[in-house]
Amino acid sequence: MFDLMTFKMGAAYFLVAFTAAIVFALAFKFIYQWITPYKETELIKQGNLAAAVVLGGALIGYALALASALSHTGSLPEFAAWATLAGIIQVVAFTLVRMLFLRDVKARIEAGEMAPSVYLASISVMVGLINAASMTA
Question: What is the pLDDT of residues 56-83, one digit of tens each?
Fold first, then answer.
């Protein structure tokens, strides 16, 4: 039997959690785009698939961690802590890979090269999956 009160309480929690996750995702997107050496938005508007793939991989990787944080936490502050930690780890992973293995990534992404794009996107998804699996409440 459908319990309207239980639904209302669940829906309220859903809206708060969903809104918090969207805010964190947008903050991550802003910070990620700020630290990358190329301008994803401009490149994507010009049809640069490589920039879109890298950014998409980063967003998917972070969303995986956010989903895990949402399902493993019982409060908004705890979710915020896990979401922040996951974002930091994603940014550090990108920075390390860029500095150690892809020093010429700016020119290569701007040129639309797919190999470094797919590599960076894959690293982001891998880190996101590991982030997600490592979270505990």
Answer: 999 999 999 999 999 998 899 999 999 9
Other beta carbons within 10 angstroms of residue 93's beta carbon come to 20
Distance CA 61, CA 127 (A): 7
Give the Cα-Cα-Cα angle 69, 84, 131 (nearest 5 degrees).
50
Task: Catalogue the long-range contacts made by 37-45 (C-beta closer than 8 Å, 24 or more residues apart).
Answer: 37/98, 37/105, 37/106, 38/105, 38/106, 38/109, 38/110, 43/109, 43/110
- The distance from CA 82 to its chain's CA centroid, rounded to whole angstroms, is 13
Query: What is this structure's pTM?
Result: 0.92
- pLDDT tens-digit readout, 21-33: 999 999 999 999 9
- Burial class from Cβ neighbours inside 10 Å (0-12, 13-18, 19+) for residue 126 reads middle
